Amino acid sequence: MEKKKVIFLFSGIAIVIFFLFIFFYNFFFVLGVKNIDFSIKVGDTIGLNVDTDKLYFGTVPRGGTADRGILVKNEEHSLVKTNIKVQSDIKDWLYVNNNNFFLKKDEKKDINFKVKVPLDAEYGEYDGQIILIFTRF
Predict the structure, then answer these.
(1) DSSP code string of 3-41
(2) For 25, 71, 118, 134, which has the most beta carbons within 10 A of its beta carbon?
(3) What are the pLDDT digits (tens) for 5-62?
(4) Extents of the domains making up the chain
(5) Which residues, at least 6 apart from 128, have a Cβ–Cβ distance to it below 8 Å?
(6) Three-state SS for 45?
(7) 110: closest CA among 67, 54, 69?
(8) Nearest Cα to 91, choosing from 61, 55, 129, 64?
(9) pTM, to two decimals
(10) Pairing of strands 30-42, 55-60
C-alpha cells in the first residue's frame, strides 16, 4: 500500500513539474515567433517582385544571386535574443548576414538575406519560411 502512495506522489510531482516547465518556457523564455514566407523563381531571365505579402527574391538565373532585407526592432523588452531559422527544401541556398543576435529595448537591426541559386538548379518556383524566434535573455 505504501508503495502505491509513493508512486502516486512522484507521478503528481512529475506532472506539476512538467506543467511548470511549459508555463515558464512559454511565458518567460520565448517572447514571440514571427514567420515570414519567401519565394524565388529560377528562370532564364532576371525579374523583380515588390509585393509585400511575402519576401520575394524574384526570378533568378542559375548561378545567380538575389538579396532582400528586413528590419527587426525590439519595442517591448529590455534585452531580446533573436534566432533565425529557415524551413525549405532550398534552405542551403539561403544565407543570412546576421543570426543569433541581441537587441536592446528600442534597438533596430537590418537583416539581409541572400539567395545563391546553384548552377544545376531545376527551373521553377521555390517557397519556404523564415522563422524569427525572440527569447528573453
Answers:
(1) HHHHHHHHHHHHHHHHHHHHHHIIIIIEEEEEEEEEEEE
(2) 134
(3) 888 888 889 999 988 887 776 656 878 899 999 999 999 987 777 767 899 999 999 9
(4) 32-136
(5) 37, 38, 39, 86, 87, 88, 89, 90, 91, 94
(6) coil
(7) 69
(8) 129
(9) 0.75
(10) parallel
